[in-house]
Each structure stands twice: as C-alpha cells, then as structure tokens.
Amino acid sequence: MTKDGEDDRSRYEQPVALLRAGRFTMGEEGVGPTVDERVRNTTLGVSVRTRIAIAVLVLSAPVLVAARPATAPPQCYGGPGGIQPIQIEVSEEVTSGPTVATTTATGRYAVPAEPPTGLVVFAHGYGHDSSSWEQHILDLVQRSGVVAVAMDYRGTYTETVGAEQLVRGWRVAEGAADSIAIARTFQQVCGVDTIALFGVSMGGNTGGLAVAAQPTGTDGLPLFDAYFHVEGASNVIETWAGATVLAPANAFAARAAQDIEAQMGGTFLESSGTYLERTVVNRVADIAGAGLQGVYLIHGVEDGLVPYNQAVEFDALLRANGVTTEFVTVGTHGTDSEAGTTITGYGGVDSPLTGHASEASQTHIIMRTAKDRLVSWFAGTVVTCSHGLLDGETFIAVQVPTVC
Prior knowledge:
Oligomer: single chain
Order of helices and strands: HEEHEEEEEHEEEHEHEHHHHEHEHEE
Number of domains: 1
Strand content: 15-25%
CATH topology: Rossmann fold
CATH architecture: 3-Layer(aba) Sandwich
C-alpha cells in the first residue's frame, strides 16, 4: 500500500520477475550474484515517499552511495519468514576521513508476508552488531508490515577476551555508507516509498552521518523521511574525551576510546578535522538540508554512557536550524523496566531514574517507547514539534508543543 492509497503490487512485478528469471551475474570476486543492469535500471514507479532516519553524522556535500546485492537478491515479502542474512557491495563512502578498505557489507533482515508498507534501517550501537537486532527486526515486520534491516558496519570485528566474545569497532562512517546503500538496495528492488532510519547509542553517530550526507533515492527524492535518534551519541568528541578519562579504571571505556581513535585516525589532537566532520552536532546544517519530515529524540535523564546533555544540545541545534523535532525525556524507569547503565550506578547506587538501555533489550522503557513511536509513525502519526516527559512509574507522558 502506498501513501496515495494504491495497492499496487504491479510495481514489484517487473523487478521481481527479473530476479526470479535468474537474470543475475556473478560478482567480480565470485562471492555471489549481483543485480543485472536490467534490474538496476528498472523504474519502480514510486509515489511520494516518507522516510525515517535515526542516528548521527557525515560530510557537508551530498554524496551518493552505490550498492549492488552480492549474494542472493533480497526478498521483498512472502517467503520462508524469519531472519535472513544479506550482503552488498558498497562502492562509495560518505566522509573524507579514513575508512576500512573492504567494500563488502553484511547484515540481517526480515520481510512481511504481504507487500511492504515501508522500510526501517536500524543502526546499532557500540559493542553490538546486527545480531542484537533480530528480535526488534521481527517485531517491526509483524507490527508495521515493513521490511526491517540492520547492518554490521564494515570494519567491525569480534575479539576474544577470556571467556567473552566482544564486538569491537566504532565504525560509524562505514555504517553510515552501509545504511544508505542497503536502503537504496531495498528501494530499488522492492519499490518501498516510506523509509525510516533508527539509530541507537553509537548508532546515533552512524545515523547522523547518514542523514547529513543528504542521500537521495532512486527517484531523486530524499532517501530518508524521518530520523529516530535513540539515546544517540551526538557528540563523539565528548564521548571520546569521557572514555579517555575513564579508561584507566574501566575496561569498556578503554576499548571505546581505542576504537574511536581507530575510526578517526588518532586522538583529537592528532585528527581534529576528522573528529569535527564525524561529530553530529557539527553537521546540523547538513541534516537540516536532508529533506527529513522530522527527527524524533528520546533519552534517559541519568544515562551513564551517552550523557543526557548530548540530546538537549542536538535538539536545540536542530530546532534553531528549522528542523521539526519531537524530544522525549524519560525520568523514572518504573518497575516494568530495568534501569540500564546510570551515572550513579558506577557508585553502586540502584537509581529509580532511567539510564542507558541495552539495545538488545525488549523491556527497557527507552527501547519500548522508541519502537512504539516508530510503529505509530509508520501508521501515519507524523513527528511533531514538541518536548515531552515520560514517567515510567505511571507511564504518563506529557508532550508540550514548542517552536521549531
């Protein structure tokens, strides 16, 4: 179903017929089939689109990111259901700083039983990859009838420390390019006309870069319609500085500082230009030109990983640049939610206030509320210019209109 009320399965018929006819060629490295030029050049007849983008950062000028399926072409609907792997080739980056050499990007996705009503691209946080998003992917597919996908970010790797398997890498620039490329892939093959970008924690850095790149879709219109910034890292310079200070006493902070430096090409003093380019709050003017319908922000007041002030700063700058923002502050977390990582938790205090959610959580108030808002957005409730406070004890939310 399109925004215009059409139930036009016919727009799938030409590209899907080509896919089923086996009109694919092997990739240059033989890793799998790539889309035939006849598929890449097919016009899908997309109507006016709405798209949601969640997360942070990129380059000033609009940059196009090309992609081609490198394994089996993605499904659009039907099929066996469940989580499926996907692999694409990314031919262009979206920032000018250092990135990894590999062009092969991987992720996970799922499709609805019927033709999709849209697409959501999830951008994962630090210490995670797309595997943390499997349940969220299935949940959105079921609740909204959309295609849902999460990418791993090129350059992310796994490290064994004792009995632990740690996911390493602050690969937000690569993640931004991967997110754009996968959105274009599904738009091209499936003809989706509503696309949302949803970034959590470090994924806010990723998502911000993606929307700041001002990407366009195959129809020449803005690729993303809206952006969901969930406890997002809006100021990576501040995040790096905080992690550096904590590093001697906290192994997680030490790894984060190391991985941010690997992404940026050194410390802030050594690579200040790259840090500045990849810091979301420095890219607000670019985000304002991305053609978003709006930005939804949600943050816990006692976040112990990404300080609450980053959301306040990002919201204020977006509104000052004419972007419609809907900002929700979460106070107490309530008995139905874990606290998450809180500032006072480092001192052993069990706080009633809301901290940083694990993005794998199905119960934390931040993740539940943000996903509910994403579902309502796909159902037609647009992002509004407002500030709100959510109380987890009563689950009463007060939203007050503001000026954007």
